[in-house]
Design the sequence.
């Protein structure tokens, strides 16, 4: 009886504390030219890898995310880990059955090699001497990590937004290594409008005199510019509908934060402005501005057909069962474009499905609509 | 025969040159408190006022517009005057029959009193000591102008965007002075999303160190911040659909202008980025940054029901025949909200109509889709 309990305990063993691990390898040849090295990936895992090395799920994060998709000390709280409610024993990403991995992307600033890392050639942070990186580069680094962890093949790769681009790239670039793929709120390539929004955000960062062409000191970065960039991004992550529900034209009740520029207010502050100031401020405290430039650019540059003769040729490589999830109110990655890609894969003979999240919350629904997400993924 | 020709010539007389006139009055009491004075309005007129003073059409301009809606020297070119193709002898706004007036709004920077005007109390530009102004203030200043011009009643007030807000305010505030009103791409009040976009633009301007809390010298303003603000605004004036048609993911062929921040490019420049840099640069050359702050704020603050007990009470005041024109692809002033307002007015007994411009070009369709505009307005 005791032995059996121990055995059960072993099977659902979780680490008692949150622990960010790192894995470093020599170098990565980059899709757009040049090489990056040494490369460190910060990662976290939950659950245990089975003896056959085929029960791993790789979760890929979005623009400003990190490896901390799940928090074992506060496992129900979505504020402390970005996909917390979906991960854990008995959850959709069931850590009692699966070995769940999430690593910070290269270019990021949460432990993986990015523009704020030390450039071994100079002994100082890379800044804008960091090379242009792509979604494929992120995926190829993840490939080295899972090999290091002893994973023989992935049971699933799953992510939303830029994480969805990574999941899609896994399906195309490593077709024989992945059983199932879930691409949420991402498509074959972003639209001109999405590139445009990203570029306004980047210009806001680079217009901040504290940016210093990327050579700011740690903790002295362009927080004003990064705040403004985040304010804009937060609009595109929501929808006209959800902002109307949350804020409408209400005046602010409590000013929680100053505007990024400490600027005078003309005729009072709207609730929606207060919310955006707060979101801008929060990101500026925790995120590296140069990482924002590089990772948002990777999002713009991603085109699943790059380096193939045609989109069809790229999509024909896919061997995984692949689920696309569009969000009804998403205007950054419109649901129609997500569906279009799923149908394209079906048309070239792939095993693709499409499901739509009926949410008013825009792009960010993949970080909010927990029960709807589970309902949507459940049948996959 | 000669006499008759002279008579005809007289009827279709147009000024041979473009001439911006000014009218100055003592002061304007402002809706949000305080007073502004003296107040100058820069204006242009085309055609002649009839003896009964009732053939005038007032055209109201949008955020960065001016009195130059029509150019008599280059009357077909939409690039030299913002509503050129709609105005002139025999055009929809027929200057052989109507006395067409367009004045620069207060708060603007094309000859009317605005933040770049000299503050009589200090002898220096107002800057941020300019008072908060509203759409109603703009309209009340226009009321003084038309009185000065001898107009007894307006045959029509017409405008799009902020110009549409002014036209609507005319209908509500001066119901007995206007026969017909056309409100294009404007609604009862902007959404939280539109306020949010405007605020990001304003923060970009105020984050520019050259802004100097609004006290920059003429010609030394925050052109980088204003360029970025304009880049963002240009996205909201178009649509995902039209940007995809125009730019898609094409790389730039010819770099016509540097980015506002002269920043390094990460992986090349997209055509859409080049376009936005160009638009930003153009506006920064011609427009005053503080005017941008004040006028965009007037747009945010506008709510047709302000100072009335209810929206219904405000709308019941309308006596004019009023046409609302929504644009199918407009996401700044969604067509559904324009239609909603027209139906609201009908519901309280007003003579309102709604027509929809079936254009992919977003909000800016009211400055582009000449033949569709004429078709839509023709029956009114």
Sequence:
């Amino acid at each position: 009886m005791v032995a059996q309990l121990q055995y059960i305990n072993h099977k659902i063993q979780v680490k008692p504390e949150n622990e960010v691990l790192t894995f470093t390898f020599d170098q990565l040849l980059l899709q757009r030219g040049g090489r990056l090295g040494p490369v460190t990936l910060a990662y976290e895992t939950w659950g245990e890898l089975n003896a056959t090395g085929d029960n791993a799920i790789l979760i890929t994060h979005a623009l400003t995310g990190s490896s901390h998709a799940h928090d074992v000390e506060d496992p129900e709280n979505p504020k402390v880990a970005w996909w917390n409610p979906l991960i854990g024993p008995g959850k959709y990403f069931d850590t009692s059955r699966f070995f769940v991995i999430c690593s910070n992307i290269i270019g990021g600033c949460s432990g993986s090699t990015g523009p704020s890392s030390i450039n071994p050639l100079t002994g100082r942070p890379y800044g804008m001497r960091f090379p242009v990186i792509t979604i494929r580069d992120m995926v190829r680094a993840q490939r080295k990590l899972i090999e290091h962890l002893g994973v023989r093949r992935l049971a699933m790769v799953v992510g939303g937004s830029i994480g969805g681009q990574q999941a899609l790239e896994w399906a195309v670039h490593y077709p024989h290594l992945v059983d199932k793929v879930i691409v949420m709120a991402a498509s074959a390539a972003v639209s001109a409008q999405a590139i445009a929004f990203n570029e306004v955000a980047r210009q806001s960062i680079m217009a901040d005199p504290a940016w210093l062409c990327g050579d700011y000191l740690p903790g002295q970065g362009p927080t004003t510019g990064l705040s403004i960039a985040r304010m804009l991004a937060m609009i595109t992550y929501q929808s006209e509908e959800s902002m109307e529900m949350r804020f409408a034209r209400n005046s602010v009740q409590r000013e929680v934060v100053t505007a990024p520029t400490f600027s005078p207010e003309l005729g009072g502050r709207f609730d929606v402005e207060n919310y955006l100031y707060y979101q801008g401020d929060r990101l500026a405290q925790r995120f590296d501005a140069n990482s924002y430039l590089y990772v948002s650019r990777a999002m713009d540059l991603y085109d699943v057909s790059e380096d193939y003769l045609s989109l069809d040729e790229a999509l024909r490589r896919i061997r995984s069962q692949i689920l696309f999830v569009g969000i009804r109110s998403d205007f950054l990655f419109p649901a129609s474009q997500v569906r279009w890609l799923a149908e394209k894969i079906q048309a070239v003979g792939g095993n693709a499905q499409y499901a739509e999240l009926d949410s008013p919350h825009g792009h960010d629904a993949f970080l909010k609509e927990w029960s709807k997400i589970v309902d949507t993924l459940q049948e996959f």
